[in-house]
Structures are given as structure tokens and as C-alpha cells.
Design a protein that fits this description.
Elements lengths: L2 E5 L2 E4 L4 E8 L7 E7 L6 E6 L6 E3 L7 E6 L4 E6 L8 E8 L15 E2 L3 E6 L1
Parallel strand pairs: 2-11
Antiparallel strand pairs: 1-3, 3-8, 4-5, 4-9, 5-6, 7-8, 9-10, 9-11
Amino acid sequence: QVRLLESGGGLVQAGDSLRLSCAASGDTFSSYAMAWFRQAPGKEREFVCRISRAGIRIYYADSVKGRFSISRDNAENTVYLQMVSLTPEDTAVYYCAADRSYLSGVRSKASDYDYWGQGTQVTVSS
């Protein structure tokens, strides 16, 4: 079992940048593909991006492509989400998630993931 703890959220203005971190503990971090999801008030949880175990295969939702970048440091047991050119539509609680399966592909459904962090709030003001 892996435990996940997100950090780095906050209140920013439109056009600003923010970097989220997700620290993992309790299991071998490199055994998990990792993803970021987000959930805005009144909406379903939405896939943002995913990175494979070695960081080679990366997938992004169309809504964030070109603005968000996912990376991981397996030595530090951490996955990151760099966000630039933020807009109010990016306002949400951001969650990191771990996938213990060895299935390939984008795997963009929340049910594809086995472990979740508690989330960190990102609010973008206009």
C-alpha cells in the first residue's frame, strides 16, 4: 500500500504558475504509475495527466496540454505537476493517484487507480 500526500496548492491569479507535489510513502514508489486528477465544485473528478513508472510515457487531457507538465523523481518518491498560464477554469481540488496495475495506455478513469491522496485546493482568480 502506498500513501500519498499532496502539497503546493493555493490562491493565484489568472496567468500565474503553480507547482504541486505529491509525496509517496509506504511502498516502492517506482512500482506505481501516477496520475493527477482534479475535481471542481459540482463536477465529477476529471483526469489531468498520467506518467508511467519510469517517466517515459506521459498523457495529458486536452484541456491542459501545453500548459501542465507532469514529472516524477523516483529517488525522492515524489510526483510533480507544473502548471502555467492558469485560468479560473483550472480551479479545483487536485488529487494525485497511484495505479499498481501494469496495464498500459492513458487509463484516464478514476476507477483505474488504487490509491489517492487527500487533495490540495487550487483557486485561480480572474
